[in-house]
Amino acid sequence: MIKKIVFFCLIYAASLAAQDLKYLEYDTDFIPPAEYKARRDSLMKEIGENAVAVFYSAPERVRNGDQDYPYHQNDNFYYLTGFPEPNAILFLIPSGTTVHDPSDSSKEMMTREILFVQPREPLRERWTGRRYGPEGAMALRGVTYALTNDKFKTAFMRILFSSHAKRLYVPPFSSDFGGEIKELMQPVQNIVDRSPAWHSTVEVRDPSPLVYSMRVVKSPEEIALIRKAAHISAVAHNQAMMSCEPEMHEYDLQALYLYVFHRMGAEDIPYPCIVGSAENSVILHYETDRREIHDGDLVLADCAAEYHNYASDVTRTYPVNGTFTEPQKQIYQIVLDAQTACIAMMKPGASWRNIQAKAEEVITDGLFKLGIIKEKSRKEMFRFFMHGVGHPVGLNVHDAGRDTLVAGMVMTAEPGIYIAEGSEGVDPKYFNIGVRLEDDILVTSSGHEILSNEAPREIKDVEALMKKKGIGNQPLQ
Ligand code: GLY
Ligand code: MN
Ligand code: MN
């Protein structure tokens, strides 16, 4: 029996080796491998020749039983490699190391980078999908040199000591780090654990801040992916507004968003869909999405697509029956005015602190005029607008950023007002009104561009759009 399995493996392995790599990547709009290479080169320049760096893929996480959560690559690892598989390790050696030439093992070559990846395993691949293997990683992801991950331990120890590196850059191990990648990283963990000891010759440093600072300004290729994600999100919001009707459930709208995201090619969502109606619209990150929505309710939908690992983050708030009530209009208009004022300030050199202050000022004034707050204080305002006015977007929905804006940053602008039932001193006509408007804004050299602009925000435009019929309110057979 064992003989048979070995025989089968050999035949199957031969057919895999011959298999064209084209089945690994169907999309043609990935960021080109040369850009990832340039990022690795630029990081190596930063850390210098006396250092080496190790980055590792995100661990696989068990959902329950024998099921894992859908796998999502670590952001910094993906930023440097574009490599989507688990159990992979990137080893950067700025001073270079000698390795066997993969195309002719009798020859040697110099490399400054080695990507360790899962080996091809015919039987496992039949169950869980094709793998790149070292050949695929080199051919498709453009890494100079790749090996199977079982070679990491020996290579790491040899190169670390032969390079006489003074510094080892490795991201800290989180408390929930586990699984196969943890075992693969054990030799590095040993060095890290030993480093504070008096005899340690290698200083351990966290490279994450260096990579985060590289991620602040997006390249044209990254912007193209965020633009696509934001476009998909805007189309989904339009369809949701056109489809929304009383007696639907929050999950009907959630399903519609997810349908449009996937129909338009998005692989994932950067955060769970937030579809909160009436009393749920005042919960900032409501993710239950189970309530039946009724005539007269307002729906706050913070739903967005992720495309090729790049996030968008878009929120619209709309009346279930297509027409805002007077109190809903009043609150909505304050939020819209705050958002418009903030977006107008977004250009190179602007301080995010000042943009936050502007949102708070407009909302404080608006709430005071309506008598919802009785004094113009930050403390009073904070009862109804209790979050930041925005954040950078990129590989992470809450991405790397800085206070002073520069061209190439992508930021959200997302003021909100949330008036919970029973809020003290507030006219009950405003209860259960939660409004947030959120768009993704690219800072350009001359100002800004709203990437999610296709979904309307003005009251009259939202009401006009909601008169049209969307794809999501047909009864299912
Ligand atoms: N959707 C998460 C956020 O707005 O930050
Ligand atoms: Mn956001
Ligand atoms: Mn959001």
What does this structure look like?
The chain has 477 residues and is α+β, with helices and mostly antiparallel strands. The chain has two domains: 21-214, Creatinase/prolidase N-terminal domain (Creatine Amidinohydrolase, Chain A, domain 1); 217-465, Creatine Amidinohydrolase (Alpha-Beta Complex), CATH 3.90.230. Helices cover 37% and strands 18% of the residues. The chain is built from 15 helices and 18 strands. A hairpin with a 2-residue loop joins strand 2 and strand 3. Helix 12 (326-345) runs antiparallel to helix 13 (352-369). The protein starts with a helix and ends in an 11-residue tail after the last helix. Bound molecules: glycine (GLY) and manganese (II) ion (2 copies).
Outline of the structure:
This protein has 15 helices and 18 strands. The chain is an alpha+beta fold.
Number of domains: 2
How far is the N terminus from the C terminus?
A: 50 Å
User: Which structural class do the helices and strands define?
Assistant: alpha+beta
Name of the level-1 CATH class of the largest domain: Alpha Beta
C-alpha geometry: elongated
CATH architecture of the largest domain: Alpha-Beta Complex
Radius of gyration: 26 Å
Percent strand equals 15-25%
Largest sheet: 6 strands, mixed
Number of helices: 15
Instruction: Write down the overall mean pLDDT.
Output: 94
- The name of the CATH topology of the largest domain is Creatine Amidinohydrolase
Strand order of the largest sheet: 6-5-4-1-7-8
Low-confidence stretches: 1-16
The kinds of small molecule bound in this structure are: glycine, manganese (II) ion
